[in-house]
Design brief:
By secondary structure, the chain is mostly helical. It has a domain of 63 residues: Arc Repressor Mutant, subunit A (Orthogonal Bundle). The protein has five helices and three strands, in the order H-H-E-H-H-E-E-H. It has a three-stranded antiparallel sheet.
């Protein structure tokens, strides 16, 4: 037998916020510090294609992990890569 529960808008918002909070607390640590392709392109103010090109570089590629076919970027790894990439560029000049 199915139960029907009626809640008002405020109660529904509270229940959703509580469910999201609980889900995030169980989220694997690996995902907490990760960025999607869109988030990284917004953070670095560059195109998604530029990021994909950096992933495909033969020398010093941008570190990436995949969830299915979706790339994910560890914040610490991409910050380190960015600093090292800038350092390498300065050394070439």
């Amino acid at each position: 037998m199915n139960k029907i529960v009626v809640v008002n808008g405020d109660d529904l918002r509270f229940l959703i916020a509580e469910a999201v909070s609980e889900a995030l607390s169980r989220e694997p640590k690996l995902l907490r510090g990760t960025l999607t392709l869109r988030q990284l392109s917004e953070q670095w103010q560059c195109s998604k294609q530029s990021i994909l090109n950096w992933i495909d570089r033969e020398k010093h590629p941008l570190p990436v992990r995949y969830i299915g076919s979706d790339p994910r970027f560890d914040r610490h790894d991409v910050d380190h890569w960015s600093k090292e990439n800038a350092r390498r560029k300065r050394e070439v000049k």
